[in-house]
């Protein structure tokens, strides 16, 4: 389980960097103060990649409770990505209609 979580963290961290940068360039410059999102788009993927590498390297030695904590953190990540996706959809719809 730790190996799959670690690999998921690394892959999602890389994907988040690419998607966040692309969307930030197109949408956020017009609607919001981009500084907070800019920090999030740099910090979150960095943490994800480091956590993923830790799980890939040392996940087999972690207690099941700690692995469950990483799983809960992964669900929090899914929530943040979903929130960002909904926010981008709302912003793109308002851009098209307004």
Helix content: over 70%
Please, how many helices? 3
Compressed to H and E, one letter per element, the order equals HHH
End-to-end separation: 47 Å
SSE class: mainly alpha
Largest sheet: none
Overall pLDDT: 79
Beta content comes to: under 5%
Uncertain stretches of 5 or more adjacent residues: none
What is the 3D form?
Answer: elongated
Overall tally of structural domains: 1
| Count of β-strands | 0
Provide the gyration radius in Å: 16 Å
Short key terms for the protein model shown above:
98 residues; 3 helices
How would you describe what is shown here?
- The chain has one domain (2-97).
- Helices cover 91% and strands 0% of the residues.
- It is built from three helices and no strands.
- 15% of the residues are buried.
- The mean pLDDT is 79.
- The chain crosses the membrane at residues 6-24, 36-59, 65-82.
- Keywords: Membrane, Transmembrane, Transmembrane helix.
């Amino acid at each position: 389980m730790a190996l799959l979580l670690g690999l998921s963290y690394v892959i999602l961290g890389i994907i988040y960097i690419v998607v966040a940068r692309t969307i930030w360039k197109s949408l956020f410059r017009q609607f919001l103060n981009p500084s907070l999102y800019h920090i999030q788009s740099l910090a979150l993927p960095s943490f994800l990649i480091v956590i993923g590498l830790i799980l890939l390297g040392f996940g087999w030695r972690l207690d099941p409770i700690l692995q469950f904590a990483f799983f809960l953190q992964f669900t929090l990540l899914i929530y943040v990505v979903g929130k960002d996706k909904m926010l981008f959809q709302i912003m793109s719809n308002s851009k098209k209609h307004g």
